[in-house]
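So, could you explain this one?
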Amino acid sequence: MSKSAWIIAAACCTLLIAAPGANGARAQSGANIYTCVDSSGRPQGADRLIAECLDREHRELAPSGFVRRQIGPALSEQERAAQAAERRKEIEARSLVQEDRRRGRAMTLRYPHQASHDAARAKAIEMVDSITAAIEQRIDELKKQRKELDAQMDLYKKNPDKIPTALRHELAAYEENMDEQRRFMADQLQEKQRVHQRFDTELALLRKIWEAQPQPQPQLPTLGTASPK
């Protein structure tokens, strides 16, 4: 918008403010005037935002003609949606920062130094290893059971059609149990990796926090006292 157009708009609004009647009453009551230059280049003035200028800048004038503020053009629906999405991103980013700080403070209370964190890692791994040991013990028991079943199956090598139904069911149950234990073992191996990854991530964050914390200063001997030998 050209400077001359704004000057014309301001002059028109000054006349509106000074005019007798309704506009004069608004001026005396302290109402503000809004001015703009529409798409045709014509200056406009009113006591509210002007419909013809919603897509362009308004100026809000005090009754004295002083420019109180400039009001930007109204946003389109797409622009409002983009602005709202940007605000949501900013809020989410601030929330993540606050959550990281809160989590960091909680971890430093739980782990004031690396030795405490290492001890917690060792305890978590010990729990996983104890479950793994129980699975290994169960697998050994199943292997012994399989040897007994194989010994019974040897009796029917020449006549496999005569294998008892109960023995066939025991063999099928063995296979199901062994497959289940193998799945349990694979799950525990993955769990052990997850535990190490979690503690590695925590340790990386904790090291930054520990390094940023003020270190205790050594106490100097008081003047006039002999240092111990």
User: Anything to note?
Assistant: The chain has a mean pLDDT of 82.
